[in-house]
Specification:
Blueprint lengths: L1 E7 L6 H12 L2 E4 H11 L2 H12 L5 H13 L5 E5 L5 H14 L1 E10 L2 H15 L6 H15 L1 H9 L2 E5 L4 H13 L4
Parallel strand pairs: 1-3, 1-4, 2-3, 4-5
Helix pairs in contact: 1-9, 2-3, 4-5, 6-7
This protein binds adenosine-5'-diphosphate.
């Protein structure tokens, strides 16, 4: 039977870094919808051209597009072992994911909410802008992404708290400190 873990949290919380390490150590495949979109943009595909302005202004890509991408990725896996990073981001995406996992017989092992105070997020994202040059890491877009998170994605915290899958992780501290918190949150029920 397949299994899945979801990383939830605002932009700049460090989800990607932690998801990557957890995937490598526990034999999961990291599925970052942001990375997939950026790869389309870099390759100049039709989808990439369509979504570039959306990412550049810090908005969300339409649910149907995202769901299509995710389904495509999962369909290619015989026994899915997936860490979702940056997905789901809306209520509609979360409901669609629930249905998809059920259809495929994939068990949701946990939803990790990595949280960091807003001011720290802005500092981190501005720092990353200088280091990596992501075109959506300027101050205006950062504020927009945080507002979109608060409006569209934060409600998923309640959604997953109701289903009993939510595990809150303090995202402040070194990468190793945060990672060990994630491990202890998961160790009870992950094999
Ligand atoms: P971050 O969360 O740090 O901003 P991501 O790489 O997760 O970075 O996302 C970057 C951008 O990609 C988002 O601002 C949004 O435009 C788009 N995106 C990524 N994942 C999704 C998703 N699940 N639904 C809608 N848009 C998405």
């Amino acid at each position: 039977m397949g299994e899945a873990v979801i990383f939830l949290g605002p932009p700049g919380a460090g989800k990607g870094t932690q998801a990557k390490r957890l995937a490598a150590e526990r034999g999961y495949r990291q599925l970052s919808t942001g990375d997939i979109l950026r790869s389309h943009i870099a390759r100049g595909t039709e989808l990439g051209q369509k979504v570039k302005p959306i990412l550049d202004r810090g908005d969300l890509v339409p649910d149907e597009l995202i769901l299509e991408l995710v389904k495509e990725e999962i369909a290619a896996m015989p026994t899915p072992r997936i860490i979702f990073d940056g997905f789901p981001r809306t209520h509609a995406q979360a409901e669609a994911l629930d249905r998809l996992l059920e259809e495929l017989g994939v068990e949701l092992r946990g939803v990790l909410l990595v949280d960091v105070p807003r001011e720290e997020l802005i500092q981190r994202l501005l720092g990353r802008a200088q280091a990596e040059g992501r075109s959506d890491d300027n101050e205006e877009t950062i504020r927009k992404r945080l507002a979109v998170y608060a409006e569209k994605t934060q409600p998923l915290v309640d959604y997953y708290a109701r289903t009993g899958n939510l595990k809150a992780i303090d995202g402040l501290g070194s990468m190793d400190e945060v990672y060990s918190r994630i491990q202890s949150a998961l160790n009870h029920d992950l094999h």
